[in-house]
Amino acid sequence: MRPLYLALPMVAGLTLIATQPALAGSPAVCHTLTPAQLDAQFTTFNTAWATKNPDTVTALFDDDAVLLATVANVPRTDPAGIRDYFVKFLKGSPVGKIDSTNIKAGCDWALRAGTWTVTLTDAATGVKTDVKARYSFLYQFEDGAWKIEHLHSSAMPEKI
């Protein structure tokens, strides 16, 4: 994995333009995501949730991704931990809907953050519950594909 800090803007107004391959002497090729492509990434994520297969969802994450999930106290920092979280979470048949979004993007990375509503269905009763939360998805282009490098979701602290 290429270190993400090589692609993100640096503090104090300096920007590191080169990526690791360029430092090694090969030309840098930047991949970027448009807002429509970020929407497609979210649709892929929601579709993976709908399969209720934790392996399908886990495959969307980078090997060293960090998942800070809404309903878990423990950060998940490897594929086994991420999969473990989704084994239980997917039983609630989650469906996500973006309510607001902010997008930042650069060479081989994209950040989407805002608010969303995740609807969960109780398997025993069929009762649906909406969880209003904040989210941030950080995507990184690696090995020819966009992967989730970081996902953070936290329930809204204030009732609206």
Describe this structure in words.
The protein has 160 residues and is an alpha+beta fold. It is 23% helix and 37% strand. The protein has four helices and five strands; from the N terminus they run αααβαββββ. Strand 3 and strand 4 form a beta hairpin. It starts with 19 loop residues before the first helix and ends in a 5-residue tail after the last strand. Residues 1-23 have low confidence and may be disordered.
Give a concise summary:
With 160 residues, the protein is an alpha+beta fold.
Could you tell me the radius of gyration in angstroms?
17 Å
The sequence of SSEs as H and E is HHHEHEEEE
- Count every helix, treating DSSP H or I runs of 4 or more residues as helices: 4
- Report the count of strand segments: 5
Q: Structural class, judged by helices and strands?
A: alpha+beta
Q: Regarding CATH, which class?
A: Alpha Beta
The residue ranges in which pLDDT falls below 50 over 5 or more consecutive positions are: 1-23
Strand count, sense and closure of the main sheet?
A: 5 strands, mixed
Give the neighbour order of strands across the main sheet: 1-5-4-3-2
Terminal-residue CA separation: 40 Å
User: What would the average pLDDT be, to the nearest integer?
Assistant: 87
Strand percentage lies at 35-45%
Named CATH topology: Nuclear Transport Factor 2, Chain: A
| Shape, per Cα inertia axes | globular
Helix residue percentage: 10-25%
Can you name the CATH architecture? Roll
Structural domains: how many: 1
